[in-house]
Here is the input.
Amino acid sequence: ISWFDFACEIKKLINSKCIVNAIDTASYPTPAKRPHFSALNTKKIKEQYGLNISGWQESLQNCIRLLTL
Here is the structure.
């Protein structure tokens, strides 16, 4: 997912009325070089340690729930 998608999901989960604007990478310069695609691959850690890793949306829901207790 993109940072925009992540922000939109947070907005939805907390029922915020804020406006989330998408911007391209060129509009948000940083000193560090960033890859165009940097998805986290969890296959190896799942296999190596037998972990069951929840999807990002479920994990985000749990995080927000814990933060709002």
In short: The two ends are 27 Å apart (CA to CA). The mean pLDDT is 91. The first helix runs from residue 3 to 13. DSSP finds three helices and no strands in the chain.
